[in-house]
Amino acid sequence: MGTIIAVDIGGTHLRTAAYESEQFEPSAYRRVKTLADEPGVFERMVKAIEEVRPHDGPLDGIGVASPGPLDPHTGHMLATPNIKQFDNFPLAPKLTEHFGVPAFLDNDANMACLGEWKYGAAKGHHDVLYLTISTGIGGGVIANDRLLQGYHGLAAELGHTIVDPDGPPCSCGFRGHLESFSSGPAIVKYVLKELENGAKSILKPDPNLNAKQVADAALRGDALAIAAYRRAGEYLGIGVASFLHAFDPSIVVFGGGVSQVGPLLFDSFHASLRKRVFHPRYLDNLKIEMAALGDDAGLLGARTLAEQSLQAIR
Amino acid sequence: MGTIIAVDIGGTHLRTAAYESEQFEPSAYRRVKTLADEPGVFERMVKAIEEVRPHDGPLDGIGVASPGPLDPHTGHMLATPNIKQFDNFPLAPKLTEHFGVPAFLDNDANMACLGEWKYGAAKGHHDVLYLTISTGIGGGVIANDRLLQGYHGLAAELGHTIVDPDGPPCSCGFRGHLESFSSGPAIVKYVLKELENGAKSILKPDPNLNAKQVADAALRGDALAIAAYRRAGEYLGIGVASFLHAFDPSIVVFGGGVSQVGPLLFDSFHASLRKRVFHPRYLDNLKIEMAALGDDAGLLGARTLAEQSLQAIR
Fold first, then answer.
1. Which of A10, A140, A198, B74 is least surrounded by Cβ atoms within 10 Å, i.e. has the fewest?
2. Is this prediction's ipTM beyond 0.90?
């Protein structure tokens, strides 16, 4: 087998890595600015792929992890909120056209899930639930050793699970999603609303307040900041209880910046989960772990997607 | 290939059928009373299998559809609320011991899903969501042409999805599950509570009231009865919206007695679903259909489970 090139399109950086089969470390790696608002994202991607491409051996395929919505079955980006150039853009077919090899595409949370399953925290598990908690909540599911993609390629959008029909609006505009309770911006919004209602806190009603600042205040003992994370953890437990009932995984893996805060979020999460799981058997031998691959999960997932997809079409 | 015997354990009847490969109709069929409260359920099952068993050809295996909770990976029944004899009972191993052939077991909703996928309303679909709505709400999911079973064999318990953390208690004792809003008993409970609160209705506060009587009252124009079904449909739409986000199927199949009432439940279901699905693409080409196999779904699913499992171990 020849080289696989993996691409990870992030909000600020676009990264490419070349992987030789059976080797964990990339043989070449490149990181450039995405500059999502400016034209030429695709051209920057092509250049960053050229720069890691081997010159002395065959290129077998390309795998791409990108923010959605997208269609992994056709490799097309759909209407994108973030990268204007990718609005209804046939990304994988364009890469195939340019490089003459098969190219595959799936969303960043699915790719991080696949990466953690193949190389990281969920290695050896057959049924995996992955959740990334940051500015949004993304999900990924492995069932029977296979990534759950769905008919339209839109499965595992678990941040948009309705956990309370009358809950606050989500970033997507709909009400009461898990993301509208437990993401970073949801934690901040709760603090700002409570400040407006007269709650006492060392935090100021600053429109630029972020989840990290709330976490810092909580660690200094601020009651409002603590309550904000506790609430996020409680709803996270409600959501994950339903996900256990739905997918019955042997491991839950948490990635994303907000999940780095530790007990502040996870004490109430665990209490809520235990209170909400309707049969104790779901928790037998269930592992709950932090993601192990850090920023490389998306690249390693995109690599795995390309390897698996190439095997399937051979 | 020889004969497969399928068993369907229902609350009132226990049924067995013998299937020859490639033939849809059973070569023999038997229906006896389950008598769940009385001892000897296993012995009645063995007798009903003996009675459909071929005498002139090999028996290849046995598939069983049963109410849960159970472990499909070991074939053991767990703590059963309904059939006392099956409390922590190694059902599939006992059948193997008796008949000398492999035996396989999974829960009735999963088996109905598998049956509808192989022979019924979901034939040809690769990603299926099945929901049965009667005294409880059971779920089944096919992803990538494979039944979702999960690590403990407890996946797709979709009636126990939390749709409102402060909602009414479910039959399982936990709060706010889809089943506690949209099952038959949930519809009845809502009517009784509203009657207690002084709501006007042709229905009387009868503790033996059932969902069928509420449906009859609704069809006669009773406002409370109509509101009860409308509320059940609204929550069903909320639940199914989250299931689309999670599983992204190409078809949703409804079985069970309560789903037979038609527009009374499904008008508000469709309106609620359309209002709650967060991306219109989930609805592209999505089929929403009634189950096609009636009472035979469980038998045909158990048959399919046995056929697939035998293929996998060969």
1. A198
2. yes
